[in-house]
What does this fold into?
Amino acid sequence: MSRRIAVIADDHGLYRMGLAFTLKDRLGFDDVEEAGSLDEALEKLGEIGDVALALFDLSMPGMASAASLAAVRECYPDLPIAVVSASEDRKDVLEALAAGVNGFVPKRLVEDDLVAALRSVVAGAIFVPASLASTMPPRQPASEAPDTTDRPAEPVDLSRLTPRQRDVLALLLRGHSNKEIARDLDLGHGTVKIHLAALFRHLGVRNRAAAVAAAAALLPRA
It folds into this structure.
């Protein structure tokens, strides 16, 4: 029987420990991998490969906003993903849902309510706090949602990339293949794929060639 593994990404170590205990004790997870930044979480997802649940805080290194999770959803379309955050700002909830997460779980929930929320996410349901659910617009089916891949929501700013995304971009600009990037940065191929997806989304492009062209145009000329 395969082991059920979860990934928790939060830069507060004590909260990660408590949440990990809850996942094991109340939801039956066999193992929980902890990460303190978005880059670290992406690398763990790429290394492990078979994760049953991924939880992300919004206030940690590398997390620009809930929209940062869109690349994770693209690379792992069937992975149950939830934001577990101290924020209950409607904008954050809407961005998280637009990015394709399965739930937005407030950190203030008591343990029984937290367990119920995470259990519904693992089961494939969409969880939104009751205090906000009545104000949420209907979630638009992916087939009907407008395609904004080539239209960045805001001006492209390379300084907003995470350190690992900048490393990947530098090698991409030098013409390295995914295999070479993985070797040079000591990353798994799945991890490189996630970082590239995040880069493409950030630059508003669909492929490597367009990413190179877009990034080169933004870099200062020598």
User: Anything to note?
Assistant: Residues 66 and 95 are 6 Å apart (CA to CA). Confidence is low (pLDDT under 50) at residues 138-153. The first strand starts at residue 5 and ends at 9.
